[in-house]
Amino acid sequence: MIALSTNAGEVPSPFDAEQQRRFDEAFEKAVAKYPPERRRSALLAVLHLAQDELGWLSEPTMAYVAFRLDIPPVRVREVATFYTMYRLRPVGRHHIGVCNSVSCWAMGSENILKHCEERLGIRPGHTTQDGQFSLEEVACLASCGTAPAVLVNNFTYAENVTPESMDALIARLRTEPGQTMAPGPHPRHLEDKHGIEKQSDPQATGTLGQPAATAVPTDRR
Amino acid sequence: MAERVKILTVDWDKPEGWSLSTYKASGGWQALPKALKMQPQQIVDEVVKSNLRGRGGAGFPTGMKWNFVRKETSFPKYLVVNADEGEPGTFKDRAILEKSPHMFVEGLVIGCYALDCHLTYVYCRGEFRKGAAARLQQAIDEAYAQGYLGKNILGSGFDLEMHVVVGAGAYICGEETALLESLEGRKGYPRLKPPFPANAGGGLFKQPTAVNNVETLANLPAIVEKGGEWFANVGVPKNGGTRLYAVSGHVNKPGVHEAPMGTTFRVLLDEYCGGMRGNKKLKAIIPGGSSSAVMTAEEVDWPSDFDTLKAKKTMAGSGGVVYLDEDTNMAFALANVMRFYAHESCGQCTPCREGTAWLSRLLDKICDGRGEKVDVDNVHQIARQMEMKTICALADGAAMPAKSYIEKFRADFDALVRG
Fold it and tell me: What residue in B sits closest to A100 (Cα-Cα)?
C-alpha cells in the first residue's frame, strides 16, 4: 500500500505516453483557472481528468494526483470518496445510471431499473461478467420534465426512457467501445468487502475486447 | 388569455436558439454597453427596485445581497454562480445553460461589473460536464472573441475572467458554502455561519463573495435594459419578474414554463401544462423542489410567490413543481424522497446524518408492510427534532416533506401499517 498520510515524494505516473500527453494538457488548463497560489483548488477537475483516462481512481492514481498538485494523498482520497462520480473500483465499459428521484419515480423509473436488471442480469452496483455493463441508481439528474432519465458513463443523458428505448440503447452501446477501464479489483466482486484489496484479475483485462491501459505502475516506491 | 410575458425564454423555440447570432438578433448583448456606462451602484439600485429574488431556493433579495458585498472593503471580491442544480424536480438552470447561455453570460458580466469583481466562477454539477457546461463554455469562448469578456471590456476599462468549474456528484454542493468548499477543491461540507459568504472571511478564498443562481443572473440584461420598475411590475409585490417553473410529474406538458411570479398552481397546471395526464385527478403538488412541504389538491389556488408560500408553511424553493395524480401513494413518495436525503446528507451534523437515515429506514419499513402506527408517529416526531439543529438546511429540507406528507396524507400511511 502507498502511504496515504504524507507527501511521499515523486510518484510514478499511471498513464501511458498518449494518456500522459492528454492529461498534462488538460491539467494545465484546469490549474490555470485558479490564481497561482490557489492551484490546489483544481483537485476535483484533475480527478475527473485522471478518471477520463483510466476509468476509475486506483490508489496509485490518487497518489499521483496528490503529487502533481502537491497536496497530501489523504486529502485526495477524502475528496475522491466524498463525491459519487469518482469510482474507487472499476465498473463496466458502459456504466448505466438510472435516476430514482421523485419525478422519475412518479414516471416509472422503478420499471426501467427492473428492466435493466433483467436485460443485463445484474443488480445495481454490479458489473456483467464480460465487463461490458455496470448498473447503478443515481440521484436527480435535472431531467425531471423528460422523466424517466438515464445517465450513461457519467455525462451522457438518455431521456423519456421506455423499456423499448432502453433495449435500443443497450444494443447500441454493445457496438461501441465505451470508456477505457484500467485493470483493478475484479468487477464481479464489487460487493465483496475485501474486493478493493485485490489486485488485477486476468478476467478484468482478458475478455473485454481490447486490452485495457496499464493503471498500476510496476515500480511502486 | 393575455399575451404571456417572456424574459428568459424568448429564444427557446427558435432553431439554434442558443447561438450568439440568435441572441443578438433578438436584441441580446445590448444591455452590457448600457450597464458599463452606468455606475456600479446604480445597477445595484435598479436590482433593488426590481424586487429580484434569488431563484435558487431561498428567495433572498438579490439587491440586498449585492449591497452587503459592496459594503465590504476587502478586495478582491468574487461572484460565484451556483449551477449545481440537483434538487429533485428542478431542471430550469440546465435549460437556461442549454438554451440561452448568452443571456446568462451577459447577466453575469453585468453582475460582476456591479460588484467590482474581476474573476468569476460558474460551478456546474458534474453531470453537466459534457452537456450544459460544454454549451456554456462555448458561449463564454464566443463572448471572449467578441470582447464581452477579458481585458478592457468594450473599451470601458473593466476586466473580467470567467471560468466554468464542474463538481462530481454531491447534492450538498448546491448549498452555497459547501459549493465554495468544493470550488476550493475540498469535500462539500457546509461552513458554519457567520461569517456569511458576502462578508470578508466567509466567501471564496475568505473574500467577500456573492453566490447567485443561474436564473437570477439571466434576468439582469432585462433589468438593465427595461429598468427595475418595469421588472417589478411583471410579478407581484416584493416578487419581481417571471419565474421558470420546472414542471414534472403526471401532467400533459411537463417542461420549463415561464410565468409571472405569483402565478397560481391551478393556472400553471391548466394553462401552461395542459392539465393532468389521462384526465386523472390531482392528488398532491410539490411546489418548489422535493424539500418543500407538500400541498393537497384543495390548495391548488395558492399563488406561487415566495412570501405567500412561506406564510402557508411551505416554500417556493427552486421552482421545481411536481404534480402527482390520484394513483400516487404518498407514503411511497415520501419513502423515495427520504432515500434521497439519506443518501445526500454529507454526514457533518449528527441530527441530519442519523435523522435522515432513520427516517428512511422507518419509511421503508412502513412501505414494506412491516410498519406499525407508532412508526408513522415516530417519523413525524423525528422530523420535528431535526429542524433548526444543523449547520445547513438539508435536514430542514428533509424534515419539511416528512412532516407535511404525514399531516396532509395520513390515510396513505395508516393504510399500510398495523395497529
Answer: B336
Q: The C-alpha cell of A218 is what? A: 510496476
List, as one string, the DSSP characters of A52-86.
Answer: HHHSS--HHHHHHHHHHHT--HHHHHHHHHHSTTS
Q: What domains sit in chain B, N to C, each tagged with a CATH number?
A: 20-234 (3.40.50.11540), 242-325 (3.10.20.600), 330-414 (1.20.1440.230)
Mutation site for B-interface testing, chosen from A140, A151, A157 by largest number of B Cβ within 10 Å: A140
- Are the Cβ atoms of A140 and B340 closer than 8 angstroms? yes
In whole angstroms, what is the distance from residue B293 CA to residue B295 CA? 7
Residues in A closer than 8 angstroms to B88, CB to CB, are 101-103, 139-140, 144
Q: Say whether pLDDT at A5 is over 70.
A: no
Q: How far apart are CA B227 and CA B47, in angstroms?
A: 9
pLDDT of B3 reads 72
In what order do the strands lie in the sheet containing B78-83?
B161-166, B119-124, B78-83, B209-213
Distance CA A188, CA A56 (A): 15
Architecture of domain A17-82: Orthogonal Bundle (1.10)
* pTM for the whole structure: 0.92
Structure confidence at residue B365 (pLDDT): 97
Q: Tens of pLDDT along B108-126?
A: 999 999 999 999 999 999 9
B86:A103 CB<8 A: no
CATH assignment, A94-174: 3.40.30.10
Share of chain B above pLDDT 70, in %: 100
